[in-house]
Amino acid sequence: MRAGSLLRAPALLYGAAATATLAAVAVLGDGTAYTYAAALLAFWWLPPALLVVPVAVAARAWGVLASVLVPAVAAGALLGPYALPGRGGGAADLRVATFNTTGTRGLQGLRALVDQHHPDVLLLQEVDPRAREGLEARYPQYAHRWYGGLSSTADGADGDAVWSTLPITSATAVDGLPAGARPASVVVLDASARGGPRALPVLSLHLASPCLACTPGDRAANPAGGTAEAARTRVAEARRYAAVVRELGARGPVVVGGDMNSSDLNEPLRVLTGDGPDGGGLTDVHRAVGTRPQLTRGSNPGFARVDVVLAAGLEPVADAEGAAGGSTHSPVVADLRWRR
């Protein structure tokens, strides 16, 4: 009885606040800075609902239980796959890694990623153009490289890249992106030497960065503007990329990886993995076969899972998080298998 009395007021307050926040996220999506941030940080504020449930049941505090029921269900759906033992397994045909190197800060992490995991394909973000020559000399095994257009920010200029042990046969810029979006291209690899298709499209993506200190319309500090503007830009980017990968996926396998600046409850990732007419139909490899939350943004543990490998037409086999090595992001390594 005493435990129930002590629990009641804070639990009711938490339950009401969490339920209201989930409703706001569901209605407003990434359209505001507040709902974007709430969805991004959901891993940290939703799990308490799971802890309250058994205490409320034991104390027969049914009002408390009712107040946290919605956030508890949301937390279970969000974290449930990570509580399961490893799925997938077996031999892989292709290993893909994505890594936001944060310019030259992540070079140690890049070295560990290559030396320990030996990816066949590296999808890189925030590559410092001044470091290209030295990096290419250090990693000659990636004989095929593509570099995307540079994006200028307050921190300097950076771009995306695809490094591959498989031949690159073409690269086509994605058109129709919103203002403030970083450029991206569909890079086609010849995977026939690995038993795959002669045309395997891959995309290295870096969706618009949030800028918590930016004022609305501040394009000098951030090409996508303030936090709310950048959130809306990410949604528009995701919808355009979803249309691109739907078309590519109709012809064969496709792989997408990068820094989405979005976690599981944010709209962009849900658009890319959605199965509806406007969804990308991509499989989130980590949610399919991974085991831990894999919070890749920030020091270990980070505050959100924003770096992902997505695939269509391939079977997820395994997924792992690498060492950041000075980057503000951790790399993600995904093993994939051709669908027979």
Structural description of this entry:
The chain has 340 residues and is α+β, with helices and mostly antiparallel strands. It has helices at 2-28, 33-40, 42-45, 48-58, 62-83, 107-117, 132-138, 227-249, 267-273, 285-289, and strands at residues 94-100, 121-127, 144-147, 151-153, 156-164, 168-173, 185-189, 200-206, 254-259, 283-284, 307-312, 314-321, 332-338. It folds into 2 domains: 2-83; 94-338, 4-Layer Sandwich (Deoxyribonuclease I, Chain A), CATH 3.60.10.10. The protein has 10 helices and 13 strands. Strand 8, helix 8 and strand 9 form a beta-alpha-beta unit.
How would you sum up the major sheet?
A: 7 strands, mixed
**Helical segment tally?**
10
CATH homologous superfamily classification of the largest domain? Endonuclease/exonuclease/phosphatase
Q: Determine the structural class based on helices, strands and strand pairing.
A: alpha+beta
CATH architecture of the largest domain: 4-Layer Sandwich
- Name the helicity range: 25-40%
Please mark out the parts with pLDDT under 50 across 5 or more consecutive residues, or reply none. none
Structural domain tally: 2
- Alpha carbon gap, first and last residue: 59 Å
Using the alpha-carbon principal axes, give the shape: globular
Average pLDDT for all residues = 91
Compute the number of strand runs: 13
Q: Classify the beta-strand content into a percent band.
A: 15-25%
* Computed Rg: 21 Å
SSE string, helices as H and strands as E? HHHHHEHEHEEEEEEHEHEHEEE
Q: Give the C-level CATH assignment of the largest domain.
A: Alpha Beta
CATH topology of the largest domain: Deoxyribonuclease I, Chain A
